[in-house]
Amino acid sequence: MSSTHHEQIIREMFTTFTDFGSTPDKLLDFMTPDYRQFVDGREMTLGDFQAHTYALRNALGALEIDIQHVVCEDDKAATVHVARATRRSGEQSLIKVIAFYQFREGRICLVDELTHVLEGSGSDRALGALQ
User: How far apart are CA 49 and CA 63, in angstroms?
Assistant: First the structure.
């Protein structure tokens, strides 16, 4: 797979992830069955990631992802992106995320990320792994 293809997968995954009108099961097309995600040191399986997606959609009215930087090489990629989360109350949070991705057979098998709340409350730090 080319680096351009991996960037496209990341962008399409984020488009699906932030489209609250789509079914979260569509995200499974982007991940391997043994997918692992580490968010600020907390490990999530594919099932945990699905629960996370449902929890975010229940807690938020909207979520936007702005990819500021992306670098791809071989079967790896990294992004710096900013997530703007809008709670159902209208309260907004801005969270900077630095993420590393690994791909296998055209799908994401690993994400390792660190988050930093730029704007919002202290509890917004938990949004990255909300269940």
Answer: 16
